[in-house]
Amino acid sequence: MRPIVEFAGVTRIYGSRVALDDVHLELLPGELTFLVGPSGAGKTTLLKLINRELRPTSGRLWVAGLAAHTLKASRVAELRRRVGVVFQDYKLLPRLTALENVAFGLQAGDLRVSDEEARDRSQDALDAVGLGDRGDAFPHQLSGGQQQRVAVARAVVAQPPLLIADEPTGNLDQETAWEMMDLFEDIAAWGTSVLVATHNVAIVTRLQRRVLTLVHGRLVRDQPAGRTGRMAWLASS
Amino acid sequence: MAGVVVRGRFPRRRIVQAVVTNLVRHLFGGAARSWARNLGSTAPALGSMTLLLLMSGLVGLTGFALHNLQQVETGQASLLHVYLRDDATDPDVIMLSQRLQNDARVAGLTYVNKAQALERAQRIPGLPQLADASESNPFPASLDVQVKTIDDMAAIDALVRDDVAVDPVYPTSYDKGAYQRIQAVLLGTAVAGFAFLGLLGFIAVTVTANSIKAAIHARRDEITIMQLVGAPRWMVRGPFVVEGAITGAAAGLVAGLITFGLTFAAITAAAGAFMRFAPGVTVTVAALAAAIVLLVGLGLGSGSSLISLRRHMET
Q1: Is the pTM of this model over 0.80?
Q2: Which residue of B has its CA nearest to A83?
Q3: B15, B228, B235: best mutation site toward chain A, by most A Cβ within 10 Å?
Protein backbone atom coordinates (compact mmCIF):
# COMPACT_ATOMS: atom_id res chain seq x y z
CA MET A 1 0.00 0.00 0.00
CA ARG A 2 1.37 3.41 -0.95
CA PRO A 3 1.93 5.73 2.04
CA ILE A 4 -0.11 8.93 2.30
CA VAL A 5 2.71 10.67 4.17
CA GLU A 6 6.40 9.89 3.94
CA PHE A 7 9.16 11.63 5.89
CA ALA A 8 12.70 10.80 4.74
CA GLY A 9 15.36 12.33 6.99
CA VAL A 10 13.33 15.47 7.62
CA THR A 11 14.96 18.12 9.79
CA ARG A 12 13.49 21.49 10.69
CA ILE A 13 15.57 24.15 12.40
CA TYR A 14 14.35 27.49 13.82
CA GLY A 15 17.39 29.75 14.09
CA SER A 16 19.74 27.68 16.24
CA ARG A 17 17.05 25.42 17.69
CA VAL A 18 16.44 22.01 16.12
CA ALA A 19 12.66 21.45 16.24
CA LEU A 20 12.67 18.21 14.26
CA ASP A 21 15.75 16.08 13.77
CA ASP A 22 16.17 13.53 10.98
CA VAL A 23 12.65 12.10 11.13
CA HIS A 24 11.78 9.04 9.06
CA LEU A 25 8.19 7.79 9.04
CA GLU A 26 5.31 6.66 6.86
CA LEU A 27 1.55 6.92 7.36
CA LEU A 28 -0.72 4.52 5.50
CA PRO A 29 -4.31 4.99 4.29
CA GLY A 30 -6.94 4.06 6.86
CA GLU A 31 -4.46 4.25 9.71
CA LEU A 32 -5.24 6.11 12.96
CA THR A 33 -1.92 7.24 14.46
CA PHE A 34 -1.21 9.17 17.63
CA LEU A 35 1.66 11.61 17.86
CA VAL A 36 2.81 12.09 21.44
CA GLY A 37 5.63 13.79 23.26
CA PRO A 38 6.31 16.49 25.83
CA SER A 39 5.62 20.13 25.09
CA GLY A 40 8.19 21.48 22.64
CA ALA A 41 9.00 18.01 21.32
CA GLY A 42 8.13 19.05 17.75
CA LYS A 43 4.59 17.67 17.35
CA THR A 44 3.11 20.88 15.99
CA THR A 45 6.14 21.41 13.75
CA LEU A 46 5.62 17.95 12.28
CA LEU A 47 1.95 18.69 11.59
CA LYS A 48 2.80 22.06 10.06
CA LEU A 49 5.31 20.41 7.77
CA ILE A 50 2.65 17.99 6.56
CA ASN A 51 0.27 20.87 5.82
CA ARG A 52 3.11 22.84 4.23
CA GLU A 53 2.79 25.70 6.68
CA LEU A 54 6.53 25.09 7.09
CA ARG A 55 9.22 23.79 4.78
CA PRO A 56 11.77 21.21 5.91
CA THR A 57 15.24 22.62 6.44
CA SER A 58 16.55 19.38 4.98
CA GLY A 59 15.22 15.98 4.00
CA ARG A 60 12.34 14.92 1.78
CA LEU A 61 8.64 14.87 2.54
CA TRP A 62 5.77 13.55 0.40
CA VAL A 63 2.16 14.25 1.25
CA ALA A 64 -0.65 12.61 -0.72
CA GLY A 65 1.60 12.18 -3.71
CA LEU A 66 3.07 15.71 -3.66
CA ALA A 67 6.71 16.47 -2.82
CA ALA A 68 6.17 19.01 -0.03
CA HIS A 69 9.88 19.69 0.34
CA THR A 70 10.13 21.17 -3.14
CA LEU A 71 6.53 22.33 -3.59
CA LYS A 72 6.19 25.82 -5.06
CA ALA A 73 4.09 28.36 -3.17
CA SER A 74 1.62 28.40 -6.05
CA ARG A 75 0.85 24.70 -5.47
CA VAL A 76 0.47 24.76 -1.69
CA ALA A 77 -3.30 25.13 -1.98
CA GLU A 78 -3.39 21.91 -4.03
CA LEU A 79 -1.62 20.06 -1.20
CA ARG A 80 -3.90 21.53 1.45
CA ARG A 81 -6.99 20.38 -0.38
CA ARG A 82 -5.69 16.86 0.26
CA VAL A 83 -5.23 17.43 3.99
CA GLY A 84 -8.05 18.07 6.49
CA VAL A 85 -6.99 19.98 9.61
CA VAL A 86 -8.61 20.08 13.07
CA PHE A 87 -7.41 22.57 15.70
CA GLN A 88 -7.61 22.62 19.45
CA ASP A 89 -9.45 25.97 19.31
CA TYR A 90 -11.81 24.81 16.50
CA LYS A 91 -11.32 27.97 14.38
CA LEU A 92 -14.96 28.30 13.42
CA LEU A 93 -16.22 31.57 11.96
CA PRO A 94 -18.54 33.07 14.58
CA ARG A 95 -20.86 34.84 12.13
CA LEU A 96 -21.60 31.65 10.18
CA THR A 97 -23.88 28.78 11.26
CA ALA A 98 -22.49 25.27 11.70
CA LEU A 99 -23.74 24.30 8.22
CA GLU A 100 -22.29 27.47 6.67
CA ASN A 101 -18.93 26.89 8.39
CA VAL A 102 -18.70 23.44 6.85
CA ALA A 103 -19.89 24.69 3.45
CA PHE A 104 -17.41 27.59 3.60
CA GLY A 105 -14.56 25.11 3.99
CA LEU A 106 -15.83 23.19 1.01
CA GLN A 107 -16.44 26.10 -1.36
CA ALA A 108 -13.35 28.09 -0.40
CA GLY A 109 -11.28 25.08 -1.41
CA ASP A 110 -13.19 24.34 -4.59
CA LEU A 111 -15.06 26.99 -6.57
CA ARG A 112 -16.78 24.35 -8.68
CA VAL A 113 -18.99 23.31 -5.77
CA SER A 114 -22.44 24.86 -6.19
CA ASP A 115 -24.49 26.13 -3.25
CA GLU A 116 -26.87 23.21 -3.52
CA GLU A 117 -24.08 20.65 -3.56
CA ALA A 118 -22.24 22.41 -0.73
CA ARG A 119 -25.42 22.39 1.37
CA ASP A 120 -26.06 18.71 0.76
CA ARG A 121 -22.50 17.62 1.40
CA SER A 122 -22.20 19.79 4.50
CA GLN A 123 -25.45 18.39 5.87
CA ASP A 124 -24.14 14.87 5.25
CA ALA A 125 -20.92 15.71 7.04
CA LEU A 126 -22.83 17.14 10.01
CA ASP A 127 -25.04 14.04 10.06
CA ALA A 128 -21.92 11.89 10.16
CA VAL A 129 -20.51 13.73 13.19
CA GLY A 130 -23.88 13.53 14.95
CA LEU A 131 -24.87 17.17 14.52
CA GLY A 132 -27.34 16.85 11.67
CA ASP A 133 -30.00 18.70 13.64
CA ARG A 134 -27.73 21.61 14.70
CA GLY A 135 -26.82 22.95 11.27
CA ASP A 136 -28.58 26.28 11.90
CA ALA A 137 -26.82 26.89 15.21
CA PHE A 138 -24.07 29.47 15.49
CA PRO A 139 -20.81 28.42 17.17
CA HIS A 140 -21.61 30.30 20.40
CA GLN A 141 -24.81 28.24 20.68
CA LEU A 142 -22.84 24.97 20.65
CA SER A 143 -20.81 23.26 23.38
CA GLY A 144 -17.04 22.81 23.01
CA GLY A 145 -17.48 19.21 21.93
CA GLN A 146 -20.11 20.15 19.38
CA GLN A 147 -17.92 22.93 18.00
CA GLN A 148 -15.06 20.47 17.65
CA ARG A 149 -17.38 18.12 15.77
CA VAL A 150 -18.29 20.90 13.39
CA ALA A 151 -14.56 21.50 12.89
CA VAL A 152 -14.09 17.80 12.10
CA ALA A 153 -17.01 17.92 9.66
CA ARG A 154 -15.39 20.91 7.93
CA ALA A 155 -12.04 19.10 7.76
CA VAL A 156 -13.44 15.97 6.13
CA VAL A 157 -16.29 17.33 4.01
CA ALA A 158 -14.01 17.56 0.97
CA GLN A 159 -13.03 13.92 1.55
CA PRO A 160 -9.26 14.44 1.90
CA PRO A 161 -7.12 11.30 2.09
CA LEU A 162 -5.41 12.62 5.23
CA LEU A 163 -6.73 14.24 8.40
CA ILE A 164 -4.40 15.85 10.93
CA ALA A 165 -5.52 17.07 14.34
CA ASP A 166 -3.48 19.16 16.77
CA GLU A 167 -4.62 18.52 20.36
CA PRO A 168 -8.27 18.10 19.28
CA THR A 169 -9.33 17.05 22.79
CA GLY A 170 -7.35 19.73 24.61
CA ASN A 171 -10.45 21.81 25.39
CA LEU A 172 -12.87 18.91 25.89
CA ASP A 173 -13.91 16.91 28.96
CA GLN A 174 -12.95 13.23 29.07
CA GLU A 175 -16.32 11.92 27.92
CA THR A 176 -16.46 14.27 24.94
CA ALA A 177 -12.84 13.47 24.15
CA TRP A 178 -13.78 9.79 23.90
CA GLU A 179 -16.62 10.62 21.53
CA MET A 180 -14.16 12.57 19.41
CA MET A 181 -11.83 9.58 19.29
CA ASP A 182 -14.71 7.32 18.22
CA LEU A 183 -15.26 9.75 15.39
CA PHE A 184 -11.61 9.62 14.34
CA GLU A 185 -11.74 5.82 14.39
CA ASP A 186 -14.79 5.90 12.10
CA ILE A 187 -13.03 8.29 9.72
CA ALA A 188 -9.96 6.05 9.63
CA ALA A 189 -12.18 3.03 9.04
CA TRP A 190 -13.48 4.71 5.86
CA GLY A 191 -9.95 4.83 4.47
CA THR A 192 -8.72 8.24 5.58
CA SER A 193 -5.32 8.36 7.25
CA VAL A 194 -5.69 10.17 10.59
CA LEU A 195 -2.80 11.65 12.59
CA VAL A 196 -3.68 13.02 16.04
CA ALA A 197 -1.19 14.96 18.17
CA THR A 198 -2.26 14.64 21.79
CA HIS A 199 -1.28 14.73 25.45
CA ASN A 200 -4.21 12.55 26.48
CA VAL A 201 -2.51 9.50 28.03
CA ALA A 202 -5.72 7.65 28.79
CA ILE A 203 -6.89 7.73 25.20
CA VAL A 204 -3.54 6.80 23.72
CA THR A 205 -3.01 3.83 26.05
CA ARG A 206 -6.53 2.50 25.84
CA LEU A 207 -7.08 2.70 22.08
CA GLN A 208 -3.90 0.78 21.33
CA ARG A 209 -3.34 2.39 17.96
CA ARG A 210 -0.01 3.18 16.39
CA VAL A 211 1.88 5.72 18.53
CA LEU A 212 4.74 7.94 17.37
CA THR A 213 6.77 9.43 20.21
CA LEU A 214 8.76 12.61 19.69
CA VAL A 215 11.29 13.86 22.21
CA HIS A 216 13.46 16.90 21.56
CA GLY A 217 12.57 16.73 17.86
CA ARG A 218 13.63 13.11 17.43
CA LEU A 219 11.25 10.25 16.68
CA VAL A 220 12.34 8.01 19.55
CA ARG A 221 9.62 5.39 19.29
CA ASP A 222 7.25 4.09 16.62
CA GLN A 223 4.94 1.71 18.45
CA PRO A 224 2.70 -0.39 16.17
CA ALA A 225 -1.02 -0.72 16.79
CA GLY A 226 -2.19 -3.32 19.31
CA ARG A 227 0.70 -2.82 21.73
CA THR A 228 0.85 -0.91 24.97
CA GLY A 229 4.03 1.07 25.42
CA ARG A 230 5.55 3.06 28.22
CA MET A 231 3.99 6.48 28.59
CA ALA A 232 5.59 7.49 31.83
CA TRP A 233 7.07 10.64 30.34
CA LEU A 234 3.56 11.86 29.39
CA ALA A 235 2.48 11.98 33.00
CA SER A 236 5.27 14.41 33.78
CA SER A 237 4.86 16.58 30.68
CA MET B 1 -19.02 12.57 5.87
CA ALA B 2 -16.27 10.82 4.02
CA GLY B 3 -16.55 8.70 0.92
CA VAL B 4 -19.55 6.47 0.48
CA VAL B 5 -21.79 8.26 2.92
CA VAL B 6 -22.31 11.30 0.75
CA ARG B 7 -21.16 10.60 -2.79
CA GLY B 8 -24.45 9.10 -3.95
CA ARG B 9 -26.47 12.15 -3.03
CA PHE B 10 -24.36 14.75 -4.77
CA PRO B 11 -26.39 16.79 -7.24
CA ARG B 12 -25.12 17.04 -10.79
CA ARG B 13 -22.58 19.82 -11.10
CA ARG B 14 -23.22 22.77 -13.30
CA ILE B 15 -19.62 23.77 -13.08
CA VAL B 16 -19.47 27.03 -15.01
CA GLN B 17 -22.52 28.46 -13.29
CA ALA B 18 -21.21 27.39 -9.89
CA VAL B 19 -17.74 28.84 -10.52
CA VAL B 20 -19.12 32.18 -11.72
CA THR B 21 -21.60 32.39 -8.84
CA ASN B 22 -18.92 31.56 -6.28
CA LEU B 23 -16.44 33.96 -7.85
CA VAL B 24 -18.85 36.88 -7.91
CA ARG B 25 -20.09 36.21 -4.41
CA HIS B 26 -16.65 35.63 -2.96
CA LEU B 27 -14.61 38.28 -4.75
CA PHE B 28 -17.12 41.08 -5.17
CA GLY B 29 -19.88 40.33 -2.67
CA GLY B 30 -17.42 39.57 0.11
CA ALA B 31 -15.31 42.62 -0.71
CA ALA B 32 -18.33 44.93 -0.86
CA ARG B 33 -19.66 43.66 2.49
CA SER B 34 -16.26 44.00 4.09
CA TRP B 35 -15.81 47.49 2.64
CA ALA B 36 -19.15 48.63 4.00
CA ARG B 37 -18.42 47.03 7.38
CA ASN B 38 -15.00 48.70 7.61
CA LEU B 39 -16.08 52.08 6.28
CA GLY B 40 -15.01 53.76 9.50
CA SER B 41 -11.41 52.59 9.16
CA THR B 42 -11.47 53.17 5.41
CA ALA B 43 -12.65 56.80 5.68
CA PRO B 44 -9.15 58.35 6.10
CA ALA B 45 -7.92 56.43 3.06
CA LEU B 46 -10.96 57.49 1.11
CA GLY B 47 -10.44 61.14 2.07
CA SER B 48 -6.73 61.27 1.32
CA MET B 49 -7.14 59.43 -1.95
CA THR B 50 -10.00 61.71 -3.02
CA LEU B 51 -7.83 64.73 -2.26
CA LEU B 52 -4.90 63.24 -4.17
CA LEU B 53 -7.02 62.39 -7.19
CA LEU B 54 -8.70 65.79 -7.19
CA MET B 55 -5.32 67.52 -7.08
CA SER B 56 -4.06 65.12 -9.76
CA GLY B 57 -7.01 65.97 -11.99
CA LEU B 58 -6.59 69.71 -11.57
CA VAL B 59 -2.79 69.61 -11.86
CA GLY B 60 -3.15 67.33 -14.89
CA LEU B 61 -5.50 69.77 -16.60
CA THR B 62 -3.17 72.66 -15.72
CA GLY B 63 -0.27 70.68 -17.15
CA PHE B 64 -2.27 70.02 -20.31
CA ALA B 65 -3.04 73.73 -20.66
CA LEU B 66 0.62 74.60 -20.05
CA HIS B 67 1.69 72.06 -22.63
CA ASN B 68 -0.61 73.67 -25.18
CA LEU B 69 0.69 77.07 -24.17
CA GLN B 70 4.20 75.82 -24.68
CA GLN B 71 3.29 74.63 -28.18
CA VAL B 72 1.92 78.07 -29.01
CA GLU B 73 4.95 79.78 -27.51
CA THR B 74 7.31 77.46 -29.36
CA GLY B 75 5.54 78.30 -32.61
CA GLN B 76 5.83 82.00 -31.88
CA ALA B 77 9.39 81.71 -30.66
CA SER B 78 10.42 80.15 -33.95
CA LEU B 79 9.02 83.12 -35.86
CA LEU B 80 11.78 85.65 -36.52
CA HIS B 81 10.86 89.20 -37.51
CA VAL B 82 13.64 90.69 -39.66
CA TYR B 83 13.12 94.47 -39.54
CA LEU B 84 13.95 96.36 -42.71
CA ARG B 85 15.48 99.81 -43.04
CA ASP B 86 12.98 102.47 -44.08
CA ASP B 87 15.30 103.37 -46.96
CA ALA B 88 15.98 99.80 -48.09
CA THR B 89 15.71 99.41 -51.85
CA ASP B 90 13.46 96.81 -53.47
CA PRO B 91 16.39 94.90 -55.05
CA ASP B 92 18.09 94.66 -51.63
CA VAL B 93 14.89 93.36 -50.01
CA ILE B 94 14.29 90.88 -52.83
CA MET B 95 17.86 89.63 -52.63
CA LEU B 96 17.52 89.11 -48.87
CA SER B 97 14.20 87.34 -49.37
CA GLN B 98 15.72 84.99 -51.92
CA ARG B 99 18.65 84.19 -49.64
CA LEU B 100 16.27 83.26 -46.86
CA GLN B 101 13.93 81.26 -49.09
CA ASN B 102 16.87 79.23 -50.38
CA ASP B 103 18.01 78.41 -46.88
CA ALA B 104 17.06 74.85 -45.87
CA ARG B 105 16.48 75.92 -42.26
CA VAL B 106 13.65 78.27 -43.22
CA ALA B 107 10.09 76.89 -43.35
CA GLY B 108 8.35 79.98 -44.66
CA LEU B 109 8.68 83.69 -45.37
CA THR B 110 6.15 86.56 -45.36
CA TYR B 111 6.73 90.20 -46.26
CA VAL B 112 4.96 92.70 -43.97
CA ASN B 113 4.95 96.30 -45.15
CA LYS B 114 4.82 99.33 -42.85
CA ALA B 115 1.04 99.71 -43.12
CA GLN B 116 0.49 96.07 -42.17
CA ALA B 117 2.98 96.45 -39.33
CA LEU B 118 1.01 99.44 -38.00
CA GLU B 119 -2.25 97.53 -38.33
CA ARG B 120 -0.76 94.60 -36.40
CA ALA B 121 0.60 96.91 -33.69
CA GLN B 122 -2.79 98.49 -33.18
CA ARG B 123 -4.12 95.09 -32.08
CA ILE B 124 -1.52 94.86 -29.32
CA PRO B 125 -2.55 96.49 -26.00
CA GLY B 126 -0.64 99.78 -25.35
CA LEU B 127 0.82 100.19 -28.85
CA PRO B 128 -2.11 102.13 -30.48
CA GLN B 129 -1.37 105.07 -28.16
CA LEU B 130 2.28 104.95 -29.21
CA ALA B 131 1.31 104.90 -32.87
CA ASP B 132 -1.10 107.82 -32.41
CA ALA B 133 1.58 109.88 -30.63
CA SER B 134 3.82 109.82 -33.68
CA GLU B 135 3.14 111.88 -36.77
CA SER B 136 4.56 109.20 -39.04
CA ASN B 137 4.27 105.41 -38.94
CA PRO B 138 7.03 104.30 -36.54
CA PHE B 139 6.70 100.58 -37.30
CA PRO B 140 9.17 99.18 -39.82
CA ALA B 141 8.43 96.79 -42.66
CA SER B 142 9.69 93.28 -41.96
CA LEU B 143 10.30 89.83 -43.33
CA ASP B 144 8.59 87.29 -41.02
CA VAL B 145 10.72 84.17 -41.17
CA GLN B 146 9.31 80.87 -39.86
CA VAL B 147 12.35 78.81 -38.81
CA LYS B 148 12.00 75.02 -38.92
CA THR B 149 13.83 74.36 -35.66
CA ILE B 150 14.03 76.80 -32.82
CA ASP B 151 17.70 75.88 -32.34
CA ASP B 152 18.48 77.50 -35.74
CA MET B 153 17.12 80.89 -34.71
CA ALA B 154 20.55 82.23 -33.69
CA ALA B 155 22.13 81.17 -36.98
CA ILE B 156 19.39 82.82 -39.08
CA ASP B 157 19.67 85.95 -36.96
CA ALA B 158 23.44 86.02 -37.57
CA LEU B 159 22.87 85.48 -41.28
CA VAL B 160 20.62 88.52 -41.76
CA ARG B 161 21.73 90.93 -39.06
CA ASP B 162 24.44 92.67 -41.19
CA ASP B 163 22.50 92.69 -44.47
CA VAL B 164 22.21 96.09 -46.19
CA ALA B 165 18.42 95.87 -46.24
CA VAL B 166 18.16 95.27 -42.50
CA ASP B 167 17.73 97.96 -39.86
CA PRO B 168 21.17 98.29 -38.19
CA VAL B 169 19.77 99.57 -34.86
CA TYR B 170 17.09 96.94 -34.25
CA PRO B 171 17.76 94.23 -36.86
CA THR B 172 15.57 91.30 -35.66
CA SER B 173 13.15 90.18 -32.95
CA TYR B 174 15.54 87.45 -31.80
CA ASP B 175 15.77 87.31 -27.98
CA LYS B 176 18.27 84.68 -26.99
CA GLY B 177 16.91 84.04 -23.49
CA ALA B 178 13.17 84.30 -24.12
CA TYR B 179 12.54 80.71 -25.13
CA GLN B 180 14.84 79.33 -22.43
CA ARG B 181 12.98 81.39 -19.83
CA ILE B 182 9.64 79.92 -20.94
CA GLN B 183 11.11 76.43 -20.85
CA ALA B 184 12.57 77.01 -17.39
CA VAL B 185 9.23 78.25 -16.01
CA LEU B 186 7.38 75.27 -17.51
CA LEU B 187 9.98 72.80 -16.25
CA GLY B 188 9.88 74.31 -12.76
CA THR B 189 6.09 74.14 -12.73
CA ALA B 190 6.15 70.51 -13.89
CA VAL B 191 8.75 69.49 -11.28
CA ALA B 192 6.82 71.22 -8.49
CA GLY B 193 3.58 69.61 -9.68
CA PHE B 194 5.07 66.13 -9.81
CA ALA B 195 6.74 66.53 -6.41
CA PHE B 196 3.47 67.65 -4.88
CA LEU B 197 1.56 64.78 -6.47
CA GLY B 198 4.28 62.34 -5.43
CA LEU B 199 3.96 63.41 -1.81
CA LEU B 200 0.17 63.18 -1.91
CA GLY B 201 0.43 59.81 -3.67
CA PHE B 202 2.73 58.46 -1.00
CA ILE B 203 0.34 59.58 1.73
CA ALA B 204 -2.69 58.12 -0.07
CA VAL B 205 -1.00 54.78 -0.76
CA THR B 206 0.24 54.52 2.84
CA VAL B 207 -3.14 55.32 4.34
CA THR B 208 -4.96 52.94 1.98
CA ALA B 209 -2.44 50.17 2.61
CA ASN B 210 -2.98 50.64 6.35
CA SER B 211 -6.75 50.40 5.98
CA ILE B 212 -6.30 47.12 4.08
CA LYS B 213 -3.94 45.95 6.82
CA ALA B 214 -6.72 46.62 9.33
CA ALA B 215 -9.15 44.66 7.14
CA ILE B 216 -6.70 41.74 6.97
CA HIS B 217 -6.41 41.67 10.75
CA ALA B 218 -10.17 41.88 11.17
CA ARG B 219 -10.60 38.82 8.94
CA ARG B 220 -7.57 36.91 10.19
CA ASP B 221 -9.52 33.79 11.22
CA GLU B 222 -11.37 33.66 7.92
CA ILE B 223 -8.10 33.99 6.02
CA THR B 224 -6.45 31.27 8.11
CA ILE B 225 -9.33 28.89 7.47
CA MET B 226 -9.36 29.66 3.77
CA GLN B 227 -5.63 29.01 3.55
CA LEU B 228 -5.89 25.78 5.50
CA VAL B 229 -8.74 24.36 3.45
CA GLY B 230 -6.69 24.94 0.32
CA ALA B 231 -8.21 28.09 -1.13
CA PRO B 232 -5.93 29.31 -3.93
CA ARG B 233 -3.82 32.34 -3.13
CA TRP B 234 -5.67 34.60 -5.53
CA MET B 235 -8.94 33.66 -3.89
CA VAL B 236 -7.64 34.56 -0.45
CA ARG B 237 -6.14 37.83 -1.65
CA GLY B 238 -8.68 38.75 -4.30
CA PRO B 239 -11.36 40.21 -2.01
CA PHE B 240 -8.81 42.57 -0.44
CA VAL B 241 -7.65 43.78 -3.84
CA VAL B 242 -11.29 44.36 -4.80
CA GLU B 243 -11.84 46.13 -1.49
CA GLY B 244 -8.93 48.46 -2.24
CA ALA B 245 -10.25 48.95 -5.76
CA ILE B 246 -13.66 49.94 -4.35
CA THR B 247 -11.98 52.54 -2.13
CA GLY B 248 -9.98 53.83 -5.11
CA ALA B 249 -12.99 53.85 -7.42
CA ALA B 250 -15.15 55.70 -4.88
CA ALA B 251 -12.41 58.29 -4.37
CA GLY B 252 -11.87 58.50 -8.14
CA LEU B 253 -15.58 58.97 -8.79
CA VAL B 254 -15.88 61.82 -6.30
CA ALA B 255 -12.63 63.46 -7.45
CA GLY B 256 -13.55 63.00 -11.12
CA LEU B 257 -16.95 64.60 -10.64
CA ILE B 258 -15.44 67.55 -8.77
CA THR B 259 -12.72 67.96 -11.41
CA PHE B 260 -15.29 67.93 -14.18
CA GLY B 261 -17.64 70.24 -12.28
CA LEU B 262 -14.97 72.84 -11.51
CA THR B 263 -13.58 72.80 -15.06
CA PHE B 264 -17.03 72.98 -16.62
CA ALA B 265 -17.92 75.93 -14.38
CA ALA B 266 -14.68 77.74 -15.29
CA ILE B 267 -15.18 77.13 -19.03
CA THR B 268 -18.78 78.37 -18.82
CA ALA B 269 -17.76 81.46 -16.83
CA ALA B 270 -14.94 82.27 -19.27
CA ALA B 271 -17.24 81.81 -22.25
CA GLY B 272 -19.68 84.30 -20.66
CA ALA B 273 -16.88 86.90 -20.56
CA PHE B 274 -15.81 86.15 -24.19
CA MET B 275 -12.53 84.66 -22.94
CA ARG B 276 -10.81 81.34 -23.32
CA PHE B 277 -10.42 79.49 -19.98
CA ALA B 278 -7.14 77.68 -20.76
CA PRO B 279 -5.49 76.64 -24.04
CA GLY B 280 -6.98 73.34 -25.25
CA VAL B 281 -9.14 72.70 -22.16
CA THR B 282 -12.66 71.97 -23.38
CA VAL B 283 -15.66 70.17 -21.87
CA THR B 284 -14.61 66.98 -23.67
CA VAL B 285 -11.10 67.25 -22.24
CA ALA B 286 -12.58 67.82 -18.78
CA ALA B 287 -14.75 64.69 -19.13
CA LEU B 288 -11.73 62.71 -20.29
CA ALA B 289 -9.73 63.99 -17.32
CA ALA B 290 -12.55 62.88 -14.98
CA ALA B 291 -12.54 59.40 -16.53
CA ILE B 292 -8.76 59.17 -16.18
CA VAL B 293 -9.01 60.24 -12.53
CA LEU B 294 -11.53 57.44 -11.94
CA LEU B 295 -9.27 54.85 -13.58
CA VAL B 296 -6.20 56.09 -11.70
CA GLY B 297 -8.21 55.77 -8.46
CA LEU B 298 -9.10 52.21 -9.35
CA GLY B 299 -5.47 51.35 -10.04
CA LEU B 300 -4.17 53.17 -6.99
CA GLY B 301 -6.63 51.42 -4.67
CA SER B 302 -5.83 47.97 -6.08
CA GLY B 303 -2.10 48.69 -6.03
CA SER B 304 -2.18 49.87 -2.41
CA SER B 305 -4.00 46.67 -1.47
CA LEU B 306 -1.41 44.54 -3.22
CA ILE B 307 1.39 46.32 -1.37
CA SER B 308 -0.38 45.75 1.94
CA LEU B 309 -1.07 42.09 1.13
CA ARG B 310 2.56 41.44 0.28
CA ARG B 311 3.60 42.92 3.59
CA HIS B 312 0.95 41.68 5.95
CA MET B 313 -0.49 38.43 4.66
CA GLU B 314 1.40 35.24 5.29
CA THR B 315 1.27 32.58 2.62
Answers
A1: no
A2: B229
A3: B228
